[in-house]
Amino acid sequence: xxxxxxxxxxxxxxxxxxxxxxxxxxxxxxxxxxxxxxxxxxxxxxxxxxxxxxxxxxxxxxxxxxxxxxxxxxxxxxxxxxxxxxxxxxxxxxxxxxxxxxxxxxxxxxxxxxxxxxxxxxxxxxx
Length: 127
Description:
Largest sheet: none
Number of strands: 0
Structural class: mainly alpha
Helix content: over 70%
Order of helices and strands: HHHHH
Number of helices: 5
């Protein structure tokens, strides 16, 4: 029983001293934070999914049609991902497999989500 209390106290003490971040979101904008390949890949993947959903809903609601809007989505989402890891996080892309590997994180899943939400919103709102 006493051992459980000391473990809880140590956890709270580490939390208060800043060893355990109260919010993992602070790391997302910290250029000094250290990233491993899996963590950065996951973050880039989920950012791309959010962008795919957001742009799909927006494109469908406006209503936009045509391949140019698909290409524009790819260009905008890739520019945002590049800006995030190169300009905000300032990671060395060579440590993570180069620009190609980082820009490809979550790309195909986000294309699917983008197209699904675009078509669904467009179909429901304009027919």
